[in-house]
Amino acid sequence: MSVSVNCPTCQKQVEWSEESPARPFCSERCKLIDLGEWANEEKSIPGEPVVIANDDYNNDEQDY
User: Fold this and answer.
1) For residue 31, which of 20, 15, 18 has the smallest C-alpha distance?
2) Could you give the C-alpha distances from 35 to 3, 8, 45, in angstroms and in order?
3) In degrees rounded to 5, what are phi and psi of residue 5?
4) Shortest CA distance to 28 belongs to which of 10, 3, 2?
5) What local confidence, expressed as pLDDT, does residue 15 receive?
6) Under a CB-based contact definition with an 8 Å cutoff, are residues 22 and 31 in contact?
7) Along the 64 residues of the chain, how does pLDDT read in single tens digits?
8) Number of domains into which the chain is organized
9) Do 10 and 2 touch, CB atoms closer than 8 A?
């Protein structure tokens, strides 16, 4: 029995098998479109914001 899923980018049906190397995407193109959306922060995972302390990043004295 083969399982089909919808491509997250274009919604085209994709067979979930070794014959579909870009799965769950239908193509490398759709895969790169999705990656670009994450990189541009158009997509995100809901959650509480994370606060990063600036002490480690704005230290004027460098430990070399």
Assistant:
1) 20
2) 24, 11, 14
3) -130, 160
4) 10
5) 95
6) yes
7) 789 999 999 999 999 999 999 999 999 999 999 999 999 999 988 999 888 887 655 555 555 5
8) 1
9) no
B/e letters for 47-63, b = 16+ CB within 10 Å, e = fewer, are: eeeeeeeeeeeeeeeee
Q: What is the CATH number of the domain that holds 28?
A: 3.30.50.10
In a domain, 11, yes or no: yes
- Extended strands (E) in the chain: 4-6, 13-15
30: in domain: yes
- Closest to 20 (Cα-Cα) out of 4, 8, 1: 4
The span from the CA of 33 to the CA of 26, in Å, is 12
